[in-house]
Amino acid sequence: MSKAYDPAATEPVMWSKWMDSGAFHADPSRVLDGDAQPYTILIPPPNVTAALHLGHALNNSIQDILIRAHRMKGFETLWMPGTDHAGIATQTMVDKKLKEAGKPGIADYKKRELTGEPGREEFLKLIHEFKDEYEERITQQLMAMGCSCDWERQRFTMDDICARAVREAFFQLFKDGLIYRGKRLVNWDPVTQTALADDEVENEEVAGHFYYLRYPLVHQTEPGNHDPVTWSELVRRGYPDAENHPEDEQAWITVATTRPETYMGDTGVAVNPKDPRAKAVKGFFCELPIVGRVIPIIEDDYVVLPVKYGGQEGDTKAEMSTGFLKVTPAHDPNDWMIGQRHNLEPINIMAPDASISDQHGWDRETNKEGGHIFVGKSREDARKLVIEEFKARSVAEGSSGSLLERMVPYSHSVGHSYRSHAAIEPYLSDQWYCKVSDDKLRGNAQRALKPEQRTESSIKDWPESRPKMVADDTTDGTMNFFPARYAKTYENWHDNLRDWCISRQLWWGHRIPVWSRERMTSDDIEQLKLVLSVGYDPFSDEPDEPAISRTENEDGTVSMHVCFQNENNTDIKLFESAGFTRDPDVLDTWFSSALWPLSTMGWPDASAAKDSSGINDFESMLAAFNPSSVLTTAREIITLWVSRMTMFNRYFLGDDKAGKAPFKDVFIHAMIQDGEGRKMSKSLGNGVDPLDIIHSHGADAMRFTLCQMTTQTQDVRMPVEMDESTGKNTSPKFDIGRNLCNKLWNAAKFAMMMLEKNPVSAGMPIDPQELSLVDRWMLSRVAHATGAINTALRNYMFKDYADAIYDLLWRDFCDWYLESIKPTVADDANQAAVLRLVLDSILRLMHPVTPFITESIHERLSTIPMREVTGFSFDQTQSTGTLCQSGWPTPDQALRDEVAEEAYDRIRSLITLIREIRASNKVHAKRAIVLHVSGSLAEDITRWSPLVETLGNIKEVTSAEAPEASAAFVFEGSEYRLSDLADAVDASVEKERLTKELADLEKAIGGLKGRLSNPGYTDKAPEHLVNQTRGELEQKIQDRDSMKASLDKLG
RNA sequence: GGGCGGGUAGCUCAGUUGGCUAGAGCAAUCGCCUUACACGCGAUGGGUCGUGGGUUCGAGUCCCUCUCCGCCCA
């Protein structure tokens, strides 16, 4: 074996070995035949937009640890790999890359499409090429990390298998009325020109202004005819302060807005009914400056009262408010609600790119409205122009002050696209919605949660969300978050859930399987019935028939939407010939992600599932592996993903639409930040590439370090440094993992050298009682570590796992066990057998975290026969000669040897004392010294003397009187001496050391005495504690007295 | 505005129901190329546990106040 572990030489070889062994392939029949319990993890499919980052490395290391440990524990494990098509992200990424390369972008392909050329298809081909490249890269990365996925089953959210699931799910939801068409405000991204879901919008604080605009008041005598309202009229109606204005001038009200550019879309002004001015302006109208539209003043208690009229002091909104609110239903969600309540018409004044337009709902010319100067301006330019124009005008000719009353700086949060980072425009459009607020979706998601993780306040607001928990229920109350606090995030999300906008105006994604025809008259419908085959009723609800929904329009016409279950339905052509066209939009990426637990298992039709690689054993996958065991993911997608998977899994897998949750546990891992607590990102340049770390430190080193970092907190920090020699980012934290691997390598090298000298021969299991102290101690430590690791795995405490490995390998095995057995192992057959067994166990316990190095060492170790120790066995697995399929250690409780542990701990304390003296007297490591023992413990020490001699480099343990030139120490109350430290012992060094130790003892004695003289303590503290304190004090006094005696001798 | 996480040694983090002198790794210092490992071995120094208060015989741990950093939601 080489002097140092070489990951680059080892990892590819071990990887091939695993792939050849077929160890990662899951066999559902073993589960269904009862040969093994299933253990399943579905990979959170990484987006095909980029290579994996360190966060992925962490998440996938964790999953591999869980999978590998359970494989060794005898479970039939399935780790389902795959990637996500990431609709908007991928499409914008490809568009950007094309533009950077000077090639035509999506805008050009859209033009082609308009001229009848194949634009959409051609562009999708380009995205597919991009996807293939990144999918390959991601796969390579996961393999380089050692991820033991079932690679034969790798999926992609847009492959045929997944597409079938999406089609079926959409059809069922559509048919059940849980997908509907709605015209309402969406979060519109004007850059990518698509709608976004609420959770794809990020709020950012933006420094802007509050603009105070004056709207003149008018009477509307008849439509199109209006007269100014004068201040004197307002005085008569009791409008406060109206008397301070010239009485014959036109009166105005002031609205405050952060978005003056939307004023062209105003269709009302609202005032709070509690406002004292409300009565005075009742029945009046406002005339929109420049545009000239006359809009009503309505009363709505949504309007915030200004402080002057009853608003709360200190409330920023009340302090900013004028009491009058311009209502723009088509461009603000709150205004939309007000508009709904008061029948105000929404007027959309923007084009999809957010420029001002009179072509998308603002019928400016027909209504003879002004404002043409704003048309065509971007929303930013329009804002400037509106302000300019208002500033230059006054309410009426001759009146004082401009229409722009004032501007106040104001910073507020504005929604931005999580993809393009453009400010979101609330935009009126027709979209498809999934009715997730329905109890069959939301309710099932809530009820899936374990009762202990629900909060009473949530259940109180919504009693039907309480898990039913009938006997043998495997549906409600089964899902468990780790750490538990994240259940709250999940619960809270559902409490405030709104319907999910699932259509996206993109090309890259699952095309919506709906054909529509808008505004059909009753004649059209009769004609349609004729066009369709004789006897065919488009409104029937038979299986295999398309699902049809109708929306009644205001003008009495009907819009019809037809959803076909299969692409090859012959009726599609019929409907198309009747004027139906396919919806051009695609589905939100999360729609297919939400089906991941189903689509990857061949749902809905296992027998028909067959993918390009020819794998066709989906037959029992769903039954064997759904629900999965655990989902490990990042907290930011608890809502986007975890919730929706739960809804869909339960909805589609239950006869009564209340099936099983898709996973038993949900583990939310920490987020890796840089040393300053910032997110790792490309723009900050503080990211660390997993492949760089694999090259510099090895995959195992990276995995161990990540495992050790994974605590239960929500963020973990990783100081990032630039490696000067490679110009790449790295972190000193990975050295821990590399050093650990090297330690293991060398320990194994040494152990096998010993085993060559003293080969183990097979035979009957050894009775632990026949073993030496140190062997019994070591087995006890393995048993202890196994228990600690099992507990850590059960609770997803990965740091505890890493620490248990570290302590077992480095502290117990290397520092003490190997050092202890050096002189004896070559001649002690039992000891050699224990060494063989312990090393094997350590390899097995470490394997899930550091798979490559352990597999490599195991390959050599397995050539040496193993002789077992009674009580020390391994789980049954489908062994194929690889470590990754070898059994997990299952030591009996009886191997936990308290007596051996206590005795060995005493020896270690004694050795530590001896080493301290050696160090303070600068005794060379090679110089063997003499230990003089006396007192009651002399017998024990003599019995341990071979160990003491080895570990302390003692050449002789004697009861003979020590010579003058010797160093004293106190162990368990008695004085011991070390002699032959050097040719002469420096008395002053000795004196200094003993004096300091004496002072420490005195201090401790003082503390203990103080505690015991406090009656509060002796009366109230538990008796065993008080006794313990008394014993301690006694011991310290003995130590002190011995120490004093030693010091006295020095003079 | 609501919710959550965090503030413990120079750095990264442990610290279970309150109970030994608050721990580990790295870094630092000193000594060692001791025949597995210098990616190592032995030893040493280093902390008012964010602030202020409370409960208790006893608080890093429980309660309250304030403060700073970060995340999520509105």
List keywords for this structure.
1051 residues; alpha+beta; four-stranded antiparallel β-sheet; 33 helices; 41% helix; elongated; RNA-binding
Describe the overall structure.
The protein has 1051 residues and is an alpha+beta fold. It has 33 helices and 35 strands. The strands form eleven sheets. Strands 7, 8, 9, 10, 11, 12, 13 and 14 form an eight-stranded mixed beta sheet that branches. It has a four-stranded antiparallel beta sheet with strand order 6-5-15-17. Helix 24 packs antiparallel against helix 27 and helix 25 packs antiparallel against helix 26. It binds one RNA strand of 74 nucleotides through helix 15, strand 27, helix 24, helix 26 and helix 29.
Compile the SSE list and pairings.
Layout: H1 7-21, H2 28-32, E1 38-42, H3 54-72, E2 76-80, E3 82-83, H4 87-100, H5 106-114, H6 119-145, E4 155-156, H7 160-175, E5 179-189, E6 194-196, E7 201-222, E8 225-228, H8 231-236, E9 252-257, E10 268-271, H9 278-281, E11 285-287, E12 294-299, H10 316-320, E13 324-327, H11 333-342, H12 379-392, E14 404-417, E15 425-434, H13 439-448, H14 456-461, E16 480-482, H15 486-495, E17 500-501, E18 503-504, E19 514-520, H16 522-531, E20 547-552, E21 558-563, H17 571-577, E22 581-582, E23 586-587, H18 589-594, H19 596-599, H20 621-625, E24 628-634, H21 638-653, E25 663-669, E26 671-674, H22 690-697, H23 699-709, E27 715-718, E28 721-723, E29 728-730, H24 734-757, H25 773-794, H26 798-821, H27 829-846, H28 851-861, E30 872-874, E31 889-891, H29 898-920, E32 929-932, H30 938-952, E33 954-958, E34 966-971, E35 974-979, H31 987-1012, H32 1015-1020, H33 1023-1050
This protein binds one RNA strand of 74 nucleotides through helix 15, strand 27, helix 24, helix 26 and helix 29.
